[in-house]
């Protein structure tokens, strides 16, 4: 968790002079866009992604698939409305080099795809990508018959020697450090000769909604998937081999990236409307309706979207965020401004996210005068009167948006490297000042 001096530019986080009242169009979901790209690349016919997220993580995914020979044409959709990408799955070829940046979805979802290419695929990325766990994917692919060269640490960099096909079959992994290990194997599973059966052997499994998202999206392109929820064994997912359909899919807004805007309504006692909030979704951000209601707001899901209102009061919360870990920085920021203490649990694995998020949140909130302590699996946050200062972000998009939430209520907060939000939300500064009418 070090500050990168190359990113020392400071952004004065806008202070809210009153209650916000705004409609915010949130761009597409990172998690849905990157799954849709992988599934379209593995399909047996062309497909469309409408309203895809255009951000660092999704452009890295598109670039990686292109490097393996998939054609992705960026343009407008079949009916001429809005941005749409056409994906032409023309075969997976090596040799190729893939830059994963610091995208968990790219570094975990693509080595199983590379095993199907007809040559070596080299994976490399940001310095932090070398520290993020990948052992579940590497060990599983080896069990399934793939040849991989790595340095033995269970992490990047590595080369997958694609042989044009993979046997597949049963595999056991410990996915307690990332649900993305399970998602990664399931996504490519239909294309393996015997499909895949993934058995999770660890004590805990984070981010279950993201595994449900993988299963739902696989089923939507014609894959047969058996899950613990559909009557299968606990902790076992089975994907039958078969061809995948090319679909015309509209990407939902990113509900986790809606979080700072909803938080703005909560901490200023205002109102924010997020158009196109889905009625039914596997996105973890949907849990915000419940979490931020418990913290003092109220919401209404209308046919146009979600209307979220603050009451003027912000309460602390005792919550297990294990299913929705990526919401932790935003919940911690609101908790630091609340009228009572909070305990955030179930998120030990966040120490291996974009940065060590538990250490980073503790340090940065405390440097503004806060009182946060780390626990074995989360944070205790006792609200204090905060003061201005620099909020470091450690190249973590969600640290930057967390700092912006605090800045609404605390004058003089400066966010270091707000540009890091480009990982999933490149327009964040403009959307934020637009929400505030500035
Ligand atoms: O599959 C996905 O799209 C994601 C799964 C989660 O990862 P972990 O299970 O590693 O926390 C989540 O935190 C990440 O932002 C996106
Ligand atoms: C953990 C996150 O990202 P990644 O997909 O890189 O794991 C996140 O977006 O909060």
UniProtKB/TrEMBL annotation:
Binding, phosphoenolpyruvate: 30, 104, 132, 180, 357, 398, 423
Enzyme Commission no: 2.5.1.19
Catalytic reactions on record: 3-phosphoshikimate + phosphoenolpyruvate = 5-O-(1-carboxyvinyl)-3-phosphoshikimate + phosphate
Superkingdom of the organism of origin: Bacteria
Annotated GO biological process: amino acid biosynthetic process; aromatic amino acid family biosynthetic process; chorismate biosynthetic process
Active site, UniProt feature: 326
Assigned keywords, A-Z: Amino-acid biosynthesis, Aromatic amino acid biosynthesis, Cytoplasm, Transferase
Enzyme class per UniProt: transferase
Pathway the protein takes part in: Metabolic intermediate biosynthesis; chorismate biosynthesis; chorismate from D-erythrose 4-phosphate and phosphoenolpyruvate: step 6/7
Compartments reported by the entry: Cytoplasm
A single GO cellular-component term on record: cytoplasm
Short name of any one Pfam family annotated for the protein: EPSP_synthase
Record text on subunit structure and interactions: Monomer.
Family affiliation: Belongs to the EPSP synthase family.
Function: Catalyzes the transfer of the enolpyruvyl moiety of phosphoenolpyruvate (PEP) to the 5-hydroxyl of shikimate-3-phosphate (S3P) to produce enolpyruvyl shikimate-3-phosphate and inorganic phosphate.
Protein name: 3-phosphoshikimate 1-carboxyvinyltransferase
